[in-house]
Amino acid sequence: DNYYNDELNKMNEITSKKTSRSYESVLELFKDNEYSPQVYKGDIYNEEEKKFISGLSIVEIYHQFIKNIDERYSTIDTMTIAESAINSAGLSGKAADTLRNEYKKLGDRFEKLKENEEHKNLFFMGEIYGMHSFLFKTLFKSLILEIMIIVVLITAYLVNYEFENSTHHLAYSSKRGRKIIVDKLFASIISTIIVTTIIMGVSLLAYFTLFDYSGLWNVPISTALNWEDKLPYISWWNMSFAQYLLSAIGVVYICELLFAGITFVISKFLKNNYIVFFIFTIIFGGSILIPGFMPTSSNAIFITGFTPFCLILNPFLWFMGNGISTVFKYYEIITVGVWSVLLIILCTLCIKRFKRESIY
């Protein structure tokens, strides 16, 4: 308050000197069609004064928002949100009870968040700049899909190289031939890590060069200033922006490795790269559509959403309690954990099977 009031007094010193008028806020000045720096065509304000007033207008927006934080947060009831989500999704029975139970846990976390005052930290104002959704929804999602396509193509190419070039009889009949499949799996893993690192590294370097986050790395991701939509972002854990970013990057790496593993398994049954890519696309689309065909009274509607394909759809909601199907506290951990174990088993079985099957 003191900083804002001091700056407002400085502005009024300028306006009093130039127009013999004073204002209770920058907004009031902007509404003054006669002397507003946004409207006035003359040289009543110099460039430095215009820049100062413009900067103060941003400070004023933050000031007004911060004053109303407690009031806005006091109106949030997670159980009311739960009932609204249940009605909008048409849930009933066990599915509705499950969602209520998760939102009850979210309510406890929300109270803890307010107690810790995680929401009272300065950050880019979400309602104006939308930096969280721009970084983790627009940019991250685009990068994930881009990397996924490249990973699928590289993995299929590596696994089926001999079959595509009709050298499989020679290559796999040698003393080491059947063991090459293990090398191909590790080559796919290394290629996935390299591709992900290059694309993510270059893109994020460009992003953080363009947008200055200095002083914001340790700000809680659940700060009220990050509020963009109807509800503020509520993370399941007290995570700083830096911790959230690193966690999100970690999930990206694991998901891309899972996609490489899925492609490896498909490639062991199909020897054509184009068909492998087509089948992967079918699995991708099917995995996203399946939850929509589940009974709205059954928990199957949630269980079928625990796939890496569904996981990558909303990276801006990772580790958050803001989604309906992803509201579960350990959604990301369970998804990548279960699928990692599943694919390790499948890849191992595929390798053993390949060592015994006929080369055709």
Can you tell me about this structure?
- This protein has 360 residues and is an all-alpha fold.
- It folds into two domains: 2-67; 126-356, no CATH class.
- The chain contains 16 helices and no strands.
- Helix 8 (131-159) packs across helix 13.
- The longest helix has 31 residues, at 180-210.
- It starts with a helix and ends with a helix.
Strand and helix layout:
Layout: H1 2-19, H2 26-31, H3 47-67, H4 69-74, H5 78-89, H6 93-116, H7 126-129, H8 131-159, H9 161-164, H10 168-172, H11 180-210, H12 241-267, H13 273-293, H14 300-303, H15 308-311, H16 331-356
User: How much strand content do the residues show?
Assistant: under 5%
Distance between the termini: 78 Å
Oligomeric state of shown chains: single chain
The number of distinct helices, counting runs of at least 4 residues, comes to 16
Low-pLDDT ranges = none
Return the domain count.
Answer: 2
| Major sheet attributes | none
Q: Which class best fits the helix and strand makeup?
A: mainly alpha
Defining key terms:
360 residues, 2 domains, 16 helices
Task: Describe, in short, the structure shown.
67% of the residues lie in helices and 0% in strands. It has 360 residues and is mainly alpha-helical.
